UniProtKB/TrEMBL annotation:
The lineage of its organism: Bacteria, Pseudomonadati, Pseudomonadota, Gammaproteobacteria, Enterobacterales. One of its GO terms (molecular function) is toxin activity. It comes from the Bacteria. It comes from Xenorhabdus vietnamensis. The keyword Isomerase does not apply. Coiled coil: none annotated. This is Hemolysin/hemagglutinin-like protein HecA. Keywords: Toxin. Residues 668-690 have a biased composition (Polar residues). Residues 668-692 are annotated as: Disordered.
Length: 737
């Protein structure tokens, strides 16, 4: 069977005006019927997003496209929405048309929006598209890329008047594996599925109210969307890519596990000996609610697993709740790209990059994660406009992911200085780097509690108001390791006729080899802080702050049986080597005059090679003086020779000077080696910085003698009160060496 033909699809954008407090309407004067001329008076979009929600960020909008097309906005209709609102419309259309979060080749909203607008600009010139007019079927059939175009739409204002606005409309070329016009669609005001077996959705299920009960639910790149959505699996609920969304409430429940993961795709290409490969996220798994009071709830009898997923609630009073009987795991998917290039016989380049893409949980309202056993968050971003709560019966771990780069480049250049000499230069550069990809938990207030241990490694826990972390056993705020290994080598071989630096030459060969090998180990610290409130850290056993920082606009309170505030260590080692060999027959000037001439020539060459004008002038002066010294040596030699002649003519016996100038011919070889090793260790201290007071209390263990110690490496910027005067307080000093 032949391949399925490409189909260009589009849908009329949703231009119904929003009615929640997230947006405001820029309405025209009530006593004037809206016209393009009136709309031009006020250049603001009809729908404008609350700047507090967008954090004053300027969002890319179709004003960019109008500038590219050089349209006069005074003669155009008002835009329906600002950049934030337009990106929301684009996102909804892409999901509805393809069932995927992003079109192929894109991984974020703004980059995708800009690419679609640029494609629209190209289509405008290719097909002579008219502003505000949707594409005809014939024009759609000739599209060669996905694009967006501004079309006219008439909206009804709250007072009943009607106004024409410009709305971005998406046109997509259906790709293999995407939903198309022939894909499965289940829709209705009420969608109620009661299944004894499994539900597999690879199409679209759309309705006002959606209720699904099945043994297992699997959303494989499909779309489920409604005003209220309730999905209940007696065993497992699995989502791979695709989107599940609701306006008011979205509830997903599973008797056993909920597993939400984005999908990746691997691509390879080879041309001769050149190879390219990439593994990238191609379909983001997305779960969201959009209403002002939207509720997003995930409940699993056993585990909730998320990998590179996106959970979002946009409304100010919305909430996201995750509850698991056992564990909540927020993991990552691995992405990579690599290339291997060869050119010529001896030149190669191999470069690879790999990384981890984590889960993002973003709510304008509250976020809550509760697990009967553990909560593990790796390279995860959680943002709450209000309260962020994390609770686990056993352990909470907030840790960094990792990204890595490797590079290996070998170059060999052969050249001839002239017909009597040649030079070959080879260079090698290698490096291997690993960097931490931090997790960040951010909320207006943040509260983390664990029955046993809590660990924050190379990550951030921050709030505007109070931040509280409590652990039944140990609380550890520590670093993540980053490494950097680098090796460079340059070897230069010369053969044939070579200069000596002065007036002379050598016939033979020389080799100069220089290398540098370095290793660095760096510690990426954690940050726990509150900009306007208190930071409270409480541990049943030990509270440890290692190479990290605590920051509070008000007080810092730390309490545990044992408290340790210690420094991490960064290290750097470097080994430099130089090897030099030379052999051959050398002919050079000798004698007093010859030595001065050699010096003058060498200094003149140094002056020519330097880039600093003052040093160049100084070397030029030195060369001139060396030349003068040579001339003076020649004059002195001539005077001594004349004196010797006069003595000899008078019958005396005088020797004429013989070392004025001459030629020296020598043959031999020489070699030299040098090696320099450097080792450095530098402390990265922990810090506690508070706008008001710092209180540290080590209660000790009544069953263990001399327990309850406080070990401190650095405290700063506040009054410090140690609440256990009868215990030992050890101040640790660290200095680089």
């Amino acid at each position: 069977m032949g391949e399925k033909p490409i189909i260009v699809r589009t849908e009329v954008p949703n231009y119904q005006l929003p009615d929640n407090s997230l947006f405001k309407l820029n309405l025209p004067p009530e006593n004037t019927q809206p016209t393009p001329a009136v709309a031009a008076i006020d250049n603001l979009p009809l729908v404008e997003t609350d700047p507090q929600f967008t954090q004053l960020k300027k969002w890319l909008g179709t004003d960019y496209m109008q500038q590219q097309l050089r349209w006069d906005h005074h003669n155009m209709h008002k835009r329906l929405g600002d950049g934030f609102y337009e990106q929301r419309l684009i996102r909804e259309q892409v999901i509805n048309l393809t069932g995927k979060r992003y079109l192929p080749g894109h991984q974020n909203d703004e980059e995708q929006f800009k690419a679609l607008m640029n494609a629209g600009v190209r289509a405008r010139h290719a097909f002579n598209l008219a502003p505000g007019i949707a594409l005809s079927a014939e024009q759609m059939a000739h599209l060669t890329e996905d694009m967006v175009w501004l079309v006219n739409a008439t909206v009804t204002l709250p007072d009943g008047r009607r106004q024409t606005v410009l709305v971005p409309q998406v046109y997509v070329r259906t790709q293999a594996g995407s939903l198309d016009g022939s894909g499965a669609l289940l829709s209705g005001s009420q969608v109620n599925l009661q299944l004894s077996g499994d539900l597999l959705n690879q199409g679209r299920i759309i309705g006002q109210d959606i209720h699904v009960l099945a043994e297992n639910i699997r959303n494989q790149g499909g779309l489920l969307q409604g005003h209220q959505v309730d999905l209940q699996a007696r065993t497992d609920m699995v989502q791979r890519g695709g989107a599940i969304g609701a306006d008011k409430s979205l509830t997903i429940g599973a008797g056993h596990n909920i597993d939400i993961a984005s999908t990746t795709r691997r691509g390879e290409n080879q041309a001769g000996n050149n190879r390219f490969s990439a593994t990238y996220v191609d379909n983001v798994a997305r779960v969201y609610v959009q209403g002002t009071d939207g509720k997003l709830h995930l409940r699993a009898g056993k585990d909730i697993d998320m990998s590179a997923a996106q959970l979002m609630s946009q409304g100010k009073n919305s909430e996201i709740q995750l509850a698991a009987g056992r564990d909540i795991q927020s993991g990552t998917v691995k992405t990579a790209q690599g290339e291997h290039l060869e050119w010529g016989r001896d030149n190669t380049l191999t470069h690879t990059e790999s990384g981890e893409t984590g889960t993002d949980i973003n709510s304008a309202g509250q976020v809550s994660l509760r697990a009967g056993r553990d909560v593990n968050l790796r390279a995860t971003g959680i943002t709450a406009g209000k309260t962020l709560q994390v609770a686990a019966g056993r352990e909470v771990a907030v840790v960094a992911g990792e990204q890595q780069q490797t590079h290996d480049e070998y170059l060999k250049v052969k050249g001839s200085n002239s017909w009597v000499s040649s030079t070959t230069t080879t260079t090698r550069e290698q490096y291997d780097r690993t960097q931490a990809v931090s997790s960040t938990l951010s909320g207006d207030t943040v509260n983390i509690q664990s029955g046993k241990d809590t660990t924050v490694q190379g990550s951030n826990v921050v709030g505007t108001q109070d931040v509280t972390i409590k652990a039944g056993n140990n609380l550890t705020i520590t670093t993540a390791e980053e490494t950097n290994h680098r090796f460079t080598q340059k070897e230069e071989k010369k053969s044939g006729l070579m200069g000596t630096g002065g007036v002379g030459f050598t016939i033979g060969s020389s080799k100069l080899k220089q290398s540098n090998d370095s290793d660095a180990l760096l510690q990426k610290g954690s940050t726990v802080g509150s900009s306007d409130g208190h930071v409270t850290l409480h541990a049943g056993e030990q509270a440890s702050l290692h190479g990290s920082e605590i920051i509070a606009g008000k007080d810092i309170d730390i309490e545990a049986k044992e408290v340790a505030v210690t420094a991490a260590k960064n290290s750097h080692t470097e080994l430099s080597k130089t090897e030099q060999k030379q052999s051959g027959l050398t002919l050079a000037l000798s004698g007093a005059v010859g030595s001065a001439v050699n010096t003058a020539v060498q200094t003149a060459n140094e002056a020519k090679d330097t880039k600093d004008s003052r040093l160049q002038a100084l070397k030029g002066t030195q060369a001139t003086l060396s030349g003068v010294q040579g001339y003076q040596a020649w004059q002195l030699s001539q005077a001594d020779a004349a004196k010797a002649d006069a003595i000899n003519q008078a019958g005396g016996d005088a020797q004429k000077p013989t070392d004025t100038i001459g030629l020296q011919l020598s043959y031999g070889s020489q070699s030299a080696k040098s090696e320099t090793r450097t080792e450095q260790t530098q402390s990265q201290g922990s810090s506690l910085n508070a706008g008001q007071d710092i209180r540290i209390r080590a209660t000790g263990d009544n069953t263990v003698a001399d327990s309850g110690n406080i070990r401190v490496s650095l405290l700063a910027n506040a009054t410090v009160a140690f609440m256990n005067p009868h215990r030992s307080i050890n101040f640790l000093s660290h200095s680089p060496r």
